[in-house]
Design goal:
Elements (H helix, E strand, L loop, with lengths): L11 E4 L3 H13 L5 E5 L8 H4 L3 E2 L10 H19 L4 E2 L3 E4 L6 H14 L4 E4 H7 L8 E5 L3 E3 L1 H14 L3 E4 L3 E5 L2 E4 L2 E3 L3 E4 L5 H7 L6 E8 L2 E3 L9 E4 L11 E4 L5 E4 L3 E2 L14 H17 L4 H10 L3 H8 L11 E4 L3 E8 L4 E2 L4 E4 L3 E6 L4 H20 L1
Helix pairs in contact: 1-6, 1-11, 3-11
């Protein structure tokens, strides 16, 4: 491709400057060294949405079946993101993770997680309850537990900032505060005027489905937003030595209430996974959009009535977690000495962009991608997309290179 650094007519235009968009932009510069790459972002700063509001956990990759893209990209992403943090000298808490059983009924699922870890090539240790307490003296578990030594935590905003710096050093240009409006072949319209890119990559997260439809994609997919909240503890740093998670219900896309040890050593509990009423419902009526609210409520009603899984039960359970005492009670099933008085401060809410197939009314549990020789769309960069971002971006660029011939 020709050398062209006109931001109005780049060879590649990436929509969305979250960690997925920035990682894809870096990969495009690497794959097509002579091409110009511009990232357009509707916010005036990076990290205003999922990439700056996630838990900061660098997952290991043992939750997912071996045939899934998530299993592969989480395993590879764990190594790549850990290495990036180390090379950039970013704070990294390599404290690992204990997965605990709350009763005998959890032991079968514990065995399944161990089997998946072995299948996926992810380091995992099976421990007795006594051995688990040697790692974390406060942990509560029934008979056995699993320990993931490669799980760690980092600061999402600092990681994203370092990635942007690297991207700019590599020649990627960022245009902030410009919102995508619509597509007019061969141009796209933003609130700052028309752009005529050679190729468009849509990594817009919460709005990826809406943008994709402008290009003829996402015909059977829609985003359903879920709000996540954490309660931060006031106990001193180091009170918990490792992350503590329950055995999850593998039929659901969420991992349950757990303890996360932040990069600075403090504990937080959560998250909730509450259905949001519109895509950017962070605080009160902030970013309220009537049309988006109506469409979102209609999708969630469809899930309540017709979903292929027990969405009604899931929604009720998650709404109960808005009660601080209840959330602390759930966390107290995983560790000793957990008191509501120590957990009073809610953190910044995050919104998970969860894709739903409108034909089946099922939530998509893996990455979903669509594209052609004109554009490419990341419809579902579902959790743990932050962990997966580096190898996932390489996969996206493989697909783009094949489409471009």
């Amino acid at each position: 491709m020709k050398q062209n650094f006109n931001t109005k007519a780049p060879d590649f235009l990436v929509i969305g400057a979250g960690i997925i968009g920035v990682s894809i932009a870096r990969q495009l510069r690497s794959r097509f060294p002579g091409a110009s790459v511009v990232v357009v972002e509707k916010e005036k700063a990076l990290g205003r949405h999922s990439s700056g509001r996630n838990s900061g956990v660098i997952h290991a990759g043992f939750y997912y079946t071996a045939d899934s893209l998530k299993a592969r990209f989480t395993r590879e992403g764990n190594r790549a993101l850990t290495q990036f943090c180390q090379e950039q000298r970013l704070p990294l808490n390599q404290c690992g993770k204990l997965v605990v059983a709350r009763s005998a009924t959890d032991l079968t699922q514990l065995d399944e997680l161990l089997r998946r870890a072995q299948h996926n090539g992810v380091p995992m240790e099976s421990l007795s309850a006594e051995d688990a307490r040697k790692i974390e003296p406060r942990v509560l578990t029934f008979e056995r537990a699993l320990f993931s030594p490669t799980t760690s935590t980092a600061d999402p905003l600092r990681v994203l900032g370092a990635m942007r710096t690297e991207a700019e050093r590599e020649g990627v240009r960022f245009v902030l505060g410009h919102t995508f409006k619509c597509a007019h072949s061969p141009s796209i319209e933003t609130d700052a005027g028309l752009l005529t890119p050679g190729y468009v990559v849509n990594a817009a997260g919460l709005h990826a489905d809406s943008i994709a439809r402008q290009f003829g994609f996402s015909q059977h997919y829609r985003i359903v937003p879920f709000k996540g909240l954490y309660l931060y503890g006031s106990e001193s740093a180091g009170t918990f030595r490792t992350n503590i998670y329950p055995v999850p219900d593998l039929r659901n896309p969420f991992l349950g209430v757990h303890f996360t040890v932040t990069v600075d050593g403090h504990a937080k509990i959560g998250p909730t996974a509450i259905p949001a009423f519109w895509r950017e419902q962070y605080e009160g009526f902030e970013n309220f959009d009537l049309a988006d609210c109506a469409q979102t409520l209609a999708r969630e009603l469809g899930l309540l009535l017709f979903a292929g899984f027990d969405f009604r039960r899931l929604a009720v359970e998650e709404l109960c977690k808005y009660n601080r005492a209840h959330l602390v009670h759930l966390a107290g099933e995983l560790a000793t000495g957990v008191h509501a008085a120590d957990y009073t401060r809610w953190g910044r809410p995050g919104i998970r962009a969860q894709l739903m197939d409108t034909r089946t009314r099922k939530l998509e549990m893996d990455f979903v991608l669509e594209g052609d020789a004109r554009s490419f769309h990341v419809l579902n960069a579902v959790s743990p997309g932050w962990t997966c971002s580096i190898p996932f971006a390489a996969h996206v660029c493989d697909q783009i290179a094949a489409l471009l011939g």
